[in-house]
Write a structure and sequence with these properties.
NADP, alpha/beta, binds NADPH dihydro-nicotinamide-adenine-dinucleotide phosphate, GMP_reductase, 10 helices, binds ligand LQESDW3C, TIM Barrel, 3-stranded antiparallel β-sheet, 325 residues, 14 strands, 7-stranded parallel β-sheet
């Protein structure tokens, strides 16, 4: 297997077939719905909350609500449906989560999407949860993860997952690789390619995306959707706490397995960083879409399918042309 990451790849252009980048269609069908771009903000407590979820759903962006205020999730589903919007929530795998799925069934609250959000998703308890959701909420689109191997993808798909999420430890606030020695950090794009080749259903690339061009690269190597945390942290609408340092405004971004999320020092695999506050999320999403339209035009196509077969070169750290940043 060839090993590379986002910064080691450059895609090779084909003849342009559009007169304007505005002609390019960046939409993606994912599960029962079609979204404007193949991007979803990470289901982390410093990245998404209910107002942002509503805004994203209203504007045809995919979202996944986090699972860290578990008692609010049933009301969240009801509220989204009352507004005529799709509901997309996260669950864990502890015993109470199995009961929560049954509670949703009893209350006739059927989310359109459920993400099983676990650090080490290639596990029997995740397979059990997939079976459980499919038994009680058969119409829900189930995303399961995270995994970092083709075996993980295949097992979760065979258990009934409708999509899998790939990425063990490439995240900006991740310390899994330091604490455990395991992960896809530093070779996430190659791991994505490895996993996507084995997949027969959609794959989400999760973690390690640092530049808008990495979205095009993810699509090239098999992603239907990109989950992104750090690029979204620090917006007006993202819920991380705003803090002032030497007169400059920053926002907290912390890992879901950090002590700040867990309120515990056990099995910590995440850290907290401060990122400069950088304006409205709508502008960032628009920029991502425009950059992706440009990517497709370089690929010589009119929609995302053009990216999937484009040629590429691997040159270590080529993206910065030898510069640091
Ligand atoms: N994408 C990534 O690389 C990573 C993501 N995260 C994020 O952190 C959050 C917390 O994840 P997680 O700790 O799985 O969730 P939970 O704290 O809900 O734990 C999941 C369950 O699995 C058990 N478990 C067994 N082995 C592992 C293992 N290697 N890692 C984690 N749990 C294990 C846990 O028991 P016990 O705690 O007793 O062992 C617990 O019962 C999630 O949002 C996840 O996405 C965390 C790390 C890596
Ligand atoms: N190892 C850990 N990974 C984490 C933690 N909290 C979240 N995550 C993962 O990171 C991505 C976001 O990555 P980014 O590079 O875009 O910032 C997120 O979707 C999770 O999969 C954690 O505490 N530890």
């Amino acid at each position: 297997m060839q090993i590379f990451d986002y910064e080691d790849i450059q895609l090779i252009p084909n003849k342009c077939v559009v007169r304007s980048r505005k002609e390019v269609d960046t939409s993606i069908k994912f599960g029962p719905r079609t979204f404007k771009i193949p991007v979803v903000p990470a289901n982390m407590q410093t990245i998404i909350d209910e107002p942002l979820a509503i805004w994203l759903a209203e504007h045809d962006y995919f979202y996944v609500m986090h699972r860290f205020t578990p008692e609010t999730r049933a009301d969240f589903v009801a509220d989204m449906h009352k507004r005529g919007l799709f509901a997309s929530i996260s669950v864990g795998v502890k015993p109470g989560e199995f009961g929560f799925i049954q509670q949703l069934e009893e209350q006739k609250l059927v989310p359109e999407y459920i993400t099983i959000d676990i650090a080490h998703g290639h596990s029997q308890v995740v397979i059990d949860m997939i079976h459980h959701i499919k038994l009680h909420l058969p119409d829900t689109f189930v995303i399961a993860g995270n995994v970092g191997t083709p075996e993980g993808v295949r097992e979760l798909e065979n258990a009934g997952a409708d999509a899998t999420k790939v990425g063990i430890g490439p995240g900006k606030v991740c310390i899994t690789k330091l604490k455990t020695g395991f992960g896809t950090g530093g070779w996430q794009l190659a791991a994505l390619r490895w996993c996507a080749k084995a997949a027969s259903k959609p794959v989400i690339a999760d973690g390690g995306i640092r530049n808008n061009g990495d979205i095009a690269k993810s699509v090239r190597f098999g992603a239907s959707m990109c989950m992104i945390g750090s690029l979204f942290a620090g917006h007006v609408e993202t819920p991380g706490k705003k803090v002032e340092v030497d007169g400059e405004l920053f926002q907290e971004y912390y890992g879901s397995a950090s002590q700040y999320q867990k309120n515990s020092h056990h099995n910590v695999e995440g850290k907290k960083i401060l990122l400069p506050v950088k304006g409205k999320i709508a502008d960032t999403l628009t920029e991502m879409q425009e950059d992706l339209q440009s990517s497709v035009s370089y690929a010589g196509g009119r929609d995302l399918s053009a990216l999937r077969k484009v040629d590429y070169v691997i040159v270590k750290n080529s993206i910065f042309n030898g510069d640091q940043y």
